[in-house]
Amino acid sequence: MTEALKTMSCQEFQDQLPELIGSGQNLAEHPHHQSCELCRALLADLETIAQAARQLFPVEEPPDGLWTQIESAIEDENKTSNSC
Amino acid sequence: MPDPRTPTPSPDASSAAASGEACAAASAPSADSIPKTPSENTAAEAEILCRAQAGDHQAFADLYSLHKKRIYSLCLRMVGNAAEAEDLTQEAFLLLHRKIATFRGDSAFSTWLHRLAINVVLMRLRKKGLSLISLDEAMDPVQEERPGRSFGSPDPKLTGSIDRLALGRAIANLPAGYRLIFVLHDIEGYEHNEIATMLDCSIGNSKSQLHKARLKLRDALRTSTRQEAWR
């Protein structure tokens, strides 16, 4: 079984990646990962992207006038419901 | 100078909890209602919530002030467009206004509101025709990424050299379906089973979409790095 994993092609390994990554397995222990520099580089890149994305987005302030619009829309809704 | 049109928390909000009034959100914590944000970890916010549930307009304005950044930022990340994010934020708070009385404190209020906002975004995307069931085929029927085929080429490696601006642009330029799952999983921290429930797709589909989104980002960043190198 391990031998089969070791001899799998890059394409076979990459076809399984969504499931392998999504299931939270430690891919560093996968025989193909250990024997294939190119797939190791791919995984390192993907992990770098995920980590960078987590730190990327600052908390943004909405435009100043937005509350006025919301308040106005709430008033409109209240008027409509009161008139029914 | 603060914008007079933007509501500010009531000065008496912090002492209001001493009144002894109770509502479901404040008095019936469950295992799920562990505060998720520091601001939520206060009796003051629970009191504001109670008053907003009872129809107090100023209390609702206070809730807006407390949560506007988080909700707007969420919408902005999910749709990648400031004007649409503004519109969706308005829609989310309008929906909150209609539904706030139904909040019973089974989860933290911020979690409940976050989920409500996600649903607003999803409804908008569905109206725009985004299929959330077969995202990959719908989004990208031609290009099936095979990253291994380019290995061995002199393409630059990304590791350790991510350009934040380029990554931000690449995420904004992802097809809507890919961006949605990438944001929900990698940025907002939802698990695949939660995403599958939200998007009404399989867990396998969610994993597959996320993987393809990351591959697309990698391609975009490599292209960006190459272009930088040519300058």
Task: Spell out the blueprint of helices and strands.
The complex is a heterodimer of chains A (84) and B (231).
Chain A: H1 2-7, H2 10-22, H3 31-35, H4 37-54, H5 66-83
Chain B: H1 13-16, H2 24-27, H3 43-53, H4 57-79, H5 82-99, H6 109-127, H7 135-139, H8 164-172, H9 176-187, H10 192-199, H11 203-230
Folded structure, characterized:
- The complex is a heterodimer of chains A (84) and B (231).
- Chain A has one domain (2-83).
- Chain A is built from 5 helices and no strands.
- Chain A has helices spanning 2-7, 10-22, 31-35, 37-54, 66-83.
- The longest helix of chain A has 18 residues, at 37-54.
- Chain A is elongated.
- The N and C termini of chain A lie far apart (71 Å).
- The mean pLDDT of chain A is 86.
- Chain B has 2 domains: 19-127, Rna Polymerase Sigma Factor, Chain: A; 135-230, Orthogonal Bundle (Arc Repressor Mutant, subunit A).
- Chain B has 11 helices and no strands.
- Chain B has helices at 13-16, 24-27, 43-53, 57-79, 82-99, 109-127, 135-139, 164-172, 176-187, 192-199, 203-230.
- In chain B, α4 runs antiparallel to α5 (82-99), α5 (82-99) crosses α6 and α9 (176-187) packs across α11 (203-230).
- Chain B is elongated.
- The model of chain B is unreliable at 1-5, 9-22, 24-36 and 133-154 (pLDDT under 50).
- At the A-B interface, α2, α4 and α5 of A face α4, α5, α8, α9 and α11 of B.
